Amino acid sequence: MNRYPLLHCINRQTLTNTMYRQISNPLLKLISSNSSLVRCVLERSRAHACSRRFCIQTVPHRVIFNVPVRSKHTRPEPKVLGRTTKKRKTMLEMKRNSKPKPAPTLESLVVPVPVEPHVSKNSTDIGAELAGVLKREEVVSVFRLLSVDKSCMEVAAEKGITGDLYRKAMLDFKRFCVESIELPVEMHIILKDIANGAGHVSDMLPFFMEHAIAMYPHLRCLEDLKKISDLSSPVHWYPAARAVKRRIIYHSGPTNSGKTYQALQKFFRAESGVYCGPLRLLANEIFHRSNREGTPCDLVTGEERICVDPDGNPACHVSCTVEMTSLDTPYEVAVIDEIQMLRDENRGWAWTRALLGINAEEVHVCGEGTAEEFIREIAESVGDTFEMNTYERLTPLEVMDEPLGDLKYVQPGDAVVCFTKADIYKVSQKLETIGIESAVIYGSLPSGTKVSQANNFNNPNHPAKVLVATDAIGMGLNLSIQRIVFYSLNKPSVDGEGNFTKSSIKPHEALQIAGRAGRFGKTKKTGLVTTLFGEDLPKLKKLMATSIQKIEKVGLQPAVNQIELFAYHLPQSTLSNLIDIFMTLCSLDHSRYFMCRMDSFKTLADVIEGVPLDLTVRYTFCCSPISTTKPFVIAAMLMMARRFSKGSPLTEKFLTSVIEWPLKSPKTLADLVHLEDVFDVLDLYLWLGYRFPDMFVHMEETRAMQGVLELKIQEAVQEIVRLLLNETRRAQGNPLIPGKKLREKVPEMSIKETLLKDGVLRKLMKTNNKKHRR
Ligand SMILES: Nc1ncnc2c1ncn2[C@@H]1O[C@H](COP(=O)(O)OP(=O)(O)OP(=O)(O)O)[C@@H](O)[C@H]1O
Ligand SMILES: [Mg+2]
């Protein structure tokens, strides 16, 4: 059974194309319980030209695929090998028909602690001596009555033992009594009395309750757990901010209206200030801008700290990513950018924390006006003042009446926006074949590569006049885009139940992306927006005309000390189980707040569950901002956690062996994707290194490696079409094209979303099937 090492527990979010390809690797094992998942996996894996044997085991996961419906208009049918349209429609129907799973109950989440029967016998069984030997049938007959006794049920219910919990506790108690060779004296006598008709079944109630509480320790501390997880009044969590009467100034307006610009004017002129941005890229930009403008400013992101003072004294100004905002330092001016991110289901908590907790006299919030009412009410409730500044777009933005129709009509200054990497590759390839050079930007590229691609596109002397990008351009990059062309309006995502779906972008996303066209100061003319395919244009117009819903609820997340207290009360629970229990028990003001999703956290918690780590360390590892769809990065994190748990410093030597440094320049797309993953591993090292400086001892060396790697990635992205072409050539056993551009038609088959180098993965996973238990 275990001939196949486990990659990691594949869950619904991680079922990407990469996964399918990997599970066809004989070294890996898929874990699933769902027959439709298994069927899909087999089909998809065969589609990836693999017909290896599979080893299938069950765990409770479920998956439903959403496959794009065939359009009767102009959009070409995406090619998926080995599957028919009919089959794909069936999959879509399966998704539509799937009912949302009800929220888990506490009973379904608590894991019972085993209560072992007494199997060793004392020299004298006093109970048997006093009351006589207890026969199995007698115990069973008592339990037949006890399990349906009304008074027993009522008393148990008062302690929270109801429904499934009652049934399971009763069964387990019966097993305990039947399997114990010797029972406690008093219990033995009472059982015997009841069996003889000299007592009532309810006499067993105290023993049952004791057993149930031993099995479910949360029952003993339910009230404490509820108090710990009371999140009903977040405004009171930040006494330092509450001690100041803050001036909240809301800069509201559409994209490209100068909101951030105006807020930054205050930041630059203040005695001290903090800028909280949504991305590392933006934090970096403001850091440089501030220093350029003569306001010394430090940089703080998860992976990078720069102190401008050569002696290491902190500057009075700091530019940071919003998660890194210090709530302990008082500032004159704080700028919280992209405030609408309060509603983000994953990261919203960071904006809520900054908004409620920042200790500044003036708090400038910039973004869509949708959070006005929420922030105004919060400000009034805590005694802060509130001012509203509304802006208009600095350049006009127009939705065109015509779609582009064909990529051959692209013009200099166009940005073709796609939502998958596969589409990015497809569009770049098509442009290349018609002789148009493009710059490429997508989310998993290192920030420096994004900036260099953006610079190429912005540079009038560079041949790349067209940009092909994902919505990664939605925030943070200054681009001279004249026209946005949506290649598609559908975006893949993971829904609330963890199913992989593809759905239409939201109006605010459409506006944010479209708003990149006609950036003030970068382009002269009106910004234009259209779609590639005619069928999408009415939808785009509708999206652009839809008014964005106001923000009613903002995100929250538990704090590490709350989870630590939970772990103290429930020592048998895994970290991911503790999170689930917390989410179920916590009390919220549901009219204003929601709990942010912690899927990624829980996936990482499950991956390192078997590694013996302190809870705080474990919690920190799980907060790592890595993509759970990248097995290579997850496997590297597991190796780091193991090494950490042994107390061995994570040295350059260790790191280079994990990533197989030095790495060659990529020849194929798979090589490039692998380099991007390696870059993320180095980022992870740096991120953890700032949290555990004593263990991650080679930060500078890691940064140097990142520099080298980034250059290789930058070069490779310039030649992405050659890499794409080589992908097919390698599969067909043909010689690869060396590093020079060729205008050759790339077969559709070669367009792959993501790939991994099997050899490296194999090495990383070598130790993965070893059992590590806490
Ligand atoms: N008064 C101004 N003088 C000179 N440049 C300006 C002025 N206002 C805005 N800009 C420039 O216009 C561009 C857009 O401004 P800004 O980034 O502040 O817009 P925004 O409303 O924050 O946009 P987004 O919603 O996309 O973040 C920037 O390059 C900015 O430097
Ligand atoms: Mg802005």
TrEMBL record:
Keyword terms: ATP-binding, Helicase, Hydrolase, Mitochondrion, Nucleotide-binding, Transit peptide
InterPro entries the UniProt entry points to: DEXQc_SUV3, Helicase_C-like, P-loop_NTPase, RNA-DNA_Helicase, SUV3_C, Suv3_C_1, Suv3_DEXQc, Suv3_N
PROSITE patterns documented for this protein: HELICASE_CTER
Coiled-coil residue windows: none
Known cofactor(s): Mg(2+); Mn(2+)
Listed name of the protein: RNA helicase
Top-level class of the enzyme under EC nomenclature: hydrolase
Record-linked Gene3D superfamilies: 1.10.1740.140, 1.20.272.40, 1.20.58.1080, P-loop containing nucleotide triphosphate hydrolases
Species, as recorded: Capitella teleta
Residue span, Helicase C-terminal domain: 403-564
UniProt keyword Amino-acid biosynthesis, yes or no: no
Keyword Hydrolase: yes
